[in-house]
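To illustrate this point, what follows is a protein record of this kind.

___
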Amino acid sequence: MFPSVLPRPVDPMFSYRHAFHAGNFADVLKHFVQVEIISHLQKKDAPFDYIDTHAGAGMYRLQSDMAQKNQEYLNGIGKLQGSDALPELAPYLALIDDFNPGGQLQRYPGSPMIAAQMLRAQDKGWLYELHPSDAELLRNNFAGNRNCRVRVEDGFKGLNGLLPTQSRRALVLIDPPYEQKEDYQRVVAALSLIHRKMATATVAIWYPVVERKRIDSLEKQIAATGIRKIELFELGIRADSEGHGMTSSGMIVVNPPWTLKEKMQALLPKLAQLLSEDGAAHFRCETLAGE
């Protein structure tokens, strides 16, 4: 039996802001996978729906105080833009260039903006964001966009009413901040709900590696759902540590494009080496559940 989506814990502070992390190595991995999946869906003329459960603000200024605090983008998009060292990244980097005319890196698009740039007239986007400040920015960034609907709601809960989509084709991107321990369980519950209501949907789950044991547990819980066709791609720039901070991040993809694993096998070793901060670069490219 699949679990139901757990209620969102009350958190009046809404402390997480993605602007502090925009364009970092985790964004590079997440958005490359996102671009690959959308490109694959577009090989058919039939429409599809893009659903973003934690959309954020949609666009980030890299010279803002938040982005400049830790300058995480310097070891992410900052090392890649304008470089042809990794030709596999060309489609993703071209999209980033679209938002930075003249070649000067000033803005970084979040996942909803990347999706909006790619959606065709027949496709739809559903963007969920609860943080009051980010939700307002998201609304402003998508004002006049007819393809995308912004909803100031809990994205996990929104899935129940949205699925199955009218198009019967969908990409659901799930990337909560994981500041609440309950987020890990809510991800598994959301995945089970999606599978129950629309088993053909592609689901892309982002995760951070701060405590490895939490990711080990997440993988076991996802495997226990019995859902098939699941692949995992992880990029590490530092060795796992008990200290504060994210050392790796990954994407767990359900119903992935058949070409994705081969592309990631070619890209991840080189990307890990390029972005390594301590010489302990590592990566994972695994099948969690087969056909």
